[in-house]
Amino acid sequence: METYKNVYSNGEVIVTYEPSRCIHAEACAKGLSEVFKTSVIPWIDLEGASTKKIISQVKKCPSGALACSNIKTKQFVKDFVI
Ligand code: SF4
Prior knowledge:
- The protein is of the alpha+beta class.
- It has helices at 27-31, 51-58, and strands spanning 6-9, 13-17, 66-70.
- It has one domain (6-77): Alpha-Beta Plaits (2-Layer Sandwich).
């Protein structure tokens, strides 16, 4: 079954979620539950924390299902500086 990437933005950062890569380790929900929610849809709410905290948590995703890029420069998370 094909799955589609989900795209979210708070005006500073674009966060993408690729369901087919997610291993459901819940590192995101445990680390930043204000943003990554397990019981509501949409499950990612970028208004729940600062951009810096969101980027820090996305970097901890063990599968690479979560990624983020700077909305202006399009730089991906490994190079991301705000
Ligand atoms: S941290 Fe990454 S792999 Fe784990 S549940 Fe969140 S998106 Fe999926």
